[in-house]
């Protein structure tokens, strides 16, 4: 079954597998297309026994997610632990939304030698948060999953 999903930008064609009346599992290719349709996502990871979640501007190179950061928690923690990276879209008027999660490891590629690291440092990433963001980070996902869902108006009402 194929359908079109409004991402707010260029709309990829999605191949979907329905698992109930309101949600579908997305293929990895669909998930990658949706990841490429955004510029801001959230990275989540464990830091000193607490789950931390930060919004980041990012870019894509193939399946690799690239973002820039400054000194601090993200730089100190993400290369030592597993990470999850999430993007989503929700249209409350239509009740249509989607979510994509990429799980894997991240590493700093700021000073790594070689063509791959150099190429990743050319991915267009424009941080909007204030401050210097000179450290380049790359997430190589080991798993990418996503859902597309439609919630009828009656199901969206709050009690």
H/E element order: EEEHEEEHEEHEH
CATH class (first level) name: Mainly Beta
Structural domain count: 1
> Main sheet?
6 strands, antiparallel, barrel
Q: What is the H level of CATH, i.e. the homologous superfamily? A: Electron Transport, Fmn-binding Protein, Chain A
Rg from alpha-carbon coordinates: 17 Å
**What order do the strands of the largest sheet run in, or round the barrel if closed?**
4-5-6-9-8-7
Global mean pLDDT? 82
Q: Tell me the distance between the termini.
A: 34 Å
Low-confidence spans: pLDDT under 50, at least 5 residues? 1-11
Please explain how this structure is put together.
This protein has 159 residues and is α+β, with helices and mostly antiparallel strands. It has one domain (2-151): Roll (Pnp Oxidase, Chain A). 15% of the residues lie in helices and 49% in strands. The protein contains 4 helices and 9 strands, in the order βββαβββαββαβα. It has a 6-stranded antiparallel barrel. A hairpin with a 2-residue loop joins β4 and β5. The longest helix is centred in the N-terminal third of the chain and has 9 residues, at 28-36. The radius of gyration is 17 Å and the shape is globular. 26% of the residues are buried.
